[in-house]
UniProtKB/TrEMBL annotation:
The active site is at residue 234. NCBIfam families: eIF-2B_rel, PRK05720.1, salvage_mtnA. The lineage of its organism: Bacteria, Bacillati, Actinomycetota, Actinomycetes, Micrococcales. InterPro entries: IF-2B-related, IF-M1Pi, IF_2B-like_C, Initiation_fac_2B_a/b/d, M1Pi_N, NagB/RpiA_transferase-like. Keywords: Amino-acid biosynthesis, Initiation factor, Isomerase, Methionine biosynthesis, Protein biosynthesis. GO terms for molecular function: S-methyl-5-thioribose-1-phosphate isomerase activity; translation initiation factor activity. It catalyses: 5-(methylsulfanyl)-alpha-D-ribose 1-phosphate = 5-(methylsulfanyl)-D-ribulose 1-phosphate. Substrate binds at residues 48-50, 89, 193, 244-245. The record marks 154 as: Transition state stabilizer. It comes from Actinotalea ferrariae CF5-4. This is Methylthioribose-1-phosphate isomerase. Belongs to the EIF-2B alpha/beta/delta subunits family. MtnA subfamily.
Length: 345
């Protein structure tokens, strides 16, 4: 299994990342030793996916402490650099969560912070593996099918996490149990996380799948070609509203019409009880050129601007189940302003 992000002490202290902007054509690793480079890697999506961003936040504090010691930063400068990491992308709550989980230990020294960050990484993998088992049980019981056909959006596998994956983890678990029919992986415009990354992982794991255009997904669902949609999450608010890669809400609407479950899978670190509803989630808007160009070539006429919200919000009443490692809640049938309290991190 690929490790999207990990800490290395040798030959010098660094965060080692697989550069996800180059996959699947090239498997190149970045050795990040400076805060500037980590912030750039987060902004360019070289490292991406909510749980992986949580690890980037926590390990980023360690990185900043090393750079600060080398360059003689004041405490104020160190805190400002840590803050730059914390806000490098706004929507996935895990990034700020990862920073906040370890930041309080800065006074105790770099070894203490690294210990906490490594603990967070280990917890993420354990959470993903556990929620995958819970999610697979729930889906098999709900659909009553021996061979479950799945549609998924964006990338939620090992690349998007510290290991194993969330929605992808459930798919993997179904496959390992012999209960997976076929996966429809949405290509996920404009940066193609589905076509490039999910397909790369599914292919490596030997999981049967096809890649479909995002525009095909609703019809795939309405034609009865899938039994369940399983997606990840960047932020789940107290009432169950969920931000995920743009295009997710279209799947949820189609699932509601078709009467099949729309399932969100995420570690409890993605649950944000301080944000009451999806209306309050900050949706990252990325450079419009990502939409009006493809592989560096312009698609739309010169001068036309792209509109590029990177995420959307699925209202809780469209979500059959939110699966975390702490348990499952069912927002569509159990509306509650504090629904997620029992499974929050
Ligand atoms: O912009 P990205 O690629 O970081 O968006 C990622 C997603 O939307 C994922 O579905 C989400 O972070 C969950 S990853 C387990």
């Amino acid at each position: 299994m690929v490790r999207a992000i990990e800490w290395r002490d040798t030959p010098r202290p660094m965060i080692r990342l697989i550069d996800q902007t180059l996959l699947p054509l090239e498997e190149r690793y970045l050795e990040v030793t400076r805060v500037d480079d980590l912030v750039a890697a987060i902004a360019s999506l070289a490292v991406r996916g909510a749980p992986a961003l949580g690890a980037a936040g926590a390990l980023g504090v360690v990185l900043a402490m090393h750079q600060g010691a080398e360059e003689g930063w004041s405490d104020l400068k160190l805190q400002a650099e840590i803050e730059r990491i914390r806000v490098a992308r706004p929507t996935a709550v895990n990034l700020a969560w990862g920073v906040d989980r370890v930041r309080g230990a800065v006074g105790a020294g770099v070894a203490a912070v690294l210990g906490l960050a490594r603990g967070l990484v280990a917890e993420d993998e354990a959470a993903n593996r556990h929620l995958s088992r819970l999610g697979a049980d729930w889906i098999l019981a709900r659909t009553g099918r021996e061979q479950v056909r799945v549609v998924t959006h964006c990338n939620t596998g090992a690349l998007a996490t510290t290991a194993w994956g969330t929605a992808y983890g459930i798919i993997h678990e179904l496959h390992d149990r012999g209960n997976l029919g076929l996966v429809y992986a949405d290509e996920t415009r404009p940066l193609l996380q589905g076509a490039r990354l999910t397909s790369w992982e599914l292919h490596k794991d030997g999981i049967p799948h096809v890649v479909e255009a995002d525009g095909a997904a609703a019809s795939t669902i309405l034609r009865g070609l899938v039994d369940v949609a399983i997606i990840g999450a960047d932020r789940i608010t107290a009432n169950g509203d969920t931000a995920n890669k743009v295009g997710s809400v279209a799947l949820a609407l189609a699932c509601a019409r078709a009467g099949i479950p729309f399932v969100v899978a995420a570690p409890s670190s993605t649950v944000d009880m301080t944000t009451k509803t999806g209306d309050h989630i900050v949706i990252e808007e990325r450079d419009g050129d990502e939409v009006v160009t493809l592989g560096g070539r312009r698609l739309a006429p010169e001068g036309v601007r792209g509109f590029n919200p990177a995420f959307d919000v699925t209202p809780h009443d469209l979500i059959a189940a939110i699966v975390t490692e702490k348990g499952i809640v069912e927002p569509a049938t159990a509306p509650d302003p504090e629904l997620l309290a029992a499974v929050a991190g």
